[in-house]
Design brief:
With 502 residues, this protein is of the alpha/beta class. It folds into two domains: 399 residues, 3-Layer(aba) Sandwich (Alkaline Phosphatase, subunit A), CATH 3.40.720.10; 70 residues, 2-Layer Sandwich (Arylsulfatase, C-terminal domain). 28% of the residues lie in helices and 17% in strands. Strands 2, 3, 4, 5, 6, 7, 8, 9, 10, 11 and 12 form an eleven-stranded mixed sheet that branches. The protein has a four-stranded antiparallel sheet with strand order 14-15-16-17, covered by helices on one side. A two-stranded antiparallel sheet has the order 1-13.
């Protein structure tokens, strides 16, 4: 009976919410490429003036030169699973995630960007990481890419995956190949497992992305390229990049070392690798990632597709404190509700329609990505489909804030929460710095961890000056707005349906 009801819900969802194209059929829809990097630091993009020392990302900078650089972009959560849920749906994941924590999942009755574009003629493909915090490694789950709009998929369904070990032999020889973070072995090509030897996942995913572009160059396509770089294991980097950055050489995993989980966590802390070594390995990994993005841009140029391709590149959350990422001048990092956990690098280009070399300083969020893509494609969604973000196209052209940015932006992750409204931020944040995983020196800790704090971000981007006593009325105002938002999220929970495994 449960599955009959579920099937009925899916049917009604698809039947009653059928997006339609806009009336402007003479305008050629752009190709759309969404590049999601993993744990990239706010200062680890050289197009920014606040770029960190020794960081160079010339190919990511090419996207910025051809388009728009955003320095005030927020994700919806300080870790990847909740953040990605909002990126791909344009909605607060707190609407359906009752725990408001690590594993929001993907409801059956929420459209993803891939579904919306596919229903309107786009060829859709996903390469790389798929992570909604639930149903890992399960190709039949709603969360799996082929089940929410992607016609083709190659990658993994987990929080993390080994960069080098992608073959069946290592999978069979390892007692624990299918962890959530510590996973290795074969990856998926659509719903079948495939193995690769003598490869590196960042290179492999780019190869697959290029093949997708070659195959679909005469169609209108949506490519979701979700790299697992620069996530842990940060020491896994091709030798030429390791040597270039004089980074420490760490042995790759072998089953004789014990479980893969033990190996993974041995090297995701400072100790076996020094703080300085982590930073060098991070920059080596970032260098490799940037070179691969350059390959992608070159292929678009070869096919004369660049002018009418909307490219969006964003990090899924703030820089990881244990990889050597750098979020300065922000405070905090991934895992925290400080700015360094939720404010991320973001670039967008579409030479045919958007200005080039522009810095857009108004507040945006990754929930704006889906509405932006729909407007670019000329798609008007059914009235029953709503978003918590808004299109960025006209605001960028006019250099005006979006209408949605005039509303408060709210966050909830476990015990941590925040609200940002007109440059003010009320936040309860905690630092992520357990003694057994000491934080790397490139990340500033929040100065008011574990206590309610009020900041004027227009004057204090580093969140150093807690104004909660001086501006107590403003704090009360923001608290009331946050409480109202949280009440709305809680009221919404009953409206969502989830796929359930046997």
């Amino acid at each position: 009976m449960r599955y009959i009801l579920l099937i009925a819900t899916i049917f009604l969802f698809v039947k009653c919410t059928n997006p339609v194209k806009s009336a402007d059929s003479n305008k050629k829809q752009p190709n759309i490429i969404l590049i999601v990097t993993d744990d990239q630091g706010y200062a680890d993009l050289s197009a920014y003036k606040h770029v960190s020392a020794n960081c160079k990302t010339p190919n990511m900078d090419r996207i910025a030169r051809n388009g728009v650089l955003f320095d005030q972009c927020y994700v919806s959560g300080p870790v990847c699973s909740p953040s990605r849920a909002a990126i791909y749906t344009g909605k607060y994941q707190e609407r359906w995630d009752e725990k408001m924590s690590w594993g929001p999942g993907l409801p059956v009755n929420v459209f993803t960007i891939a579904e919306l574009l596919k229903k309107n003629g786009y060829t859709t493909g996903k390469v790389g990481k798929s992570d909604f915090g639930r149903n890992y490694h399960n190709p039949e789950a709603r969360d799996f890419p082929n089940n929410h709009g992607y016609e083709s998929f190659i990658g993994f369904s987990a929080h993390a995956h080994d960069f080098f070990l992608l073959d069946e032999d290592i999978e069979k020889a390892t007692p624990d190949p299918y962890g959530e973070s510590a996973s290795l072995g074969r990856i998926f090509r659509n719903k079948d497992k495939v193995g690769f030897k003598d490869t590196y996942s960042t290179d492999l995913y780019t190869d697959e992305a290029l093949q997708f572009i070659d195959k679909n160059k005469d169609k209108t396509f949506f490519l979701d390229l979700a790299y697992n770089a620069v996530h842990e294991l940060i020491h896994q980097v091709p030798e030429k990049y390791r040597e270039k950055w004089d980074a420490p050489k760490i042995p790759n995993y072998d089953p004789s070392m014990g479980t893969y989980n033990d190996y993974y966590y041995k090297y995701t802390k400072v100790g076996e690798i020094t703080d300085e070594g982590k930073r060098k390995l991070y920059l080596a990994n970032l260098n490799c990632l940037d070179d691969n993005i350059g390959r992608l841009l070159d292929r678009l140029n070869e096919h004369n597709l660049l002018d009418n391709t909307l490219i969006m590149l964003v990090s899924d959350n703030g820089g990881e404190p244990l990889t050597g990422a750098n979020n300065l001048p922000l405070s905090g990092s991934k895992y925290t509700m400080h700015e360094g956990g939720i404010r991320v690098p973001f670039i967008m280009s579409w030479p045919k329609e958007l200005p080039s070399g522009k810095l857009y300083k108004h507040r945006v969020s990754t929930m704006d990505i889906v509405p932006t893509c729909l407007e670019a494609a000329g798609i008007k969604a059914d009235k029953s489909i709503t978003f918590d973000g808004g299109s960025l196209l006209q605001p960028v052209v006019k250099n005006e804030p979006t209408l949605i940015s005039k509303q408060p932006l709210c966050f909830k992750f476990d015990k941590q929460w925040a609200i940002i409204d007109n440059g003010w931020k009320l936040v309860f944040a905690e630092d992520y710095c357990p003694k057994w995983r000491p934080i790397t020196s490139q990340i500033m800790l929040g100065s008011n961890s574990g206590k309610l704090a009020l900041y004027n971000l227009k004057e204090d981007i580093g969140e150093r000056n807690n104004l909660i006593e001086i501006e107590s009325e403003k704090a009360k105002e923001l608290q009331a707005k946050f409480d109202h938002w949280l009440e709305k999220m809680n009221d919404d929970h009953g409206n969502y349906v989830f796929w359930q495994a046997e």
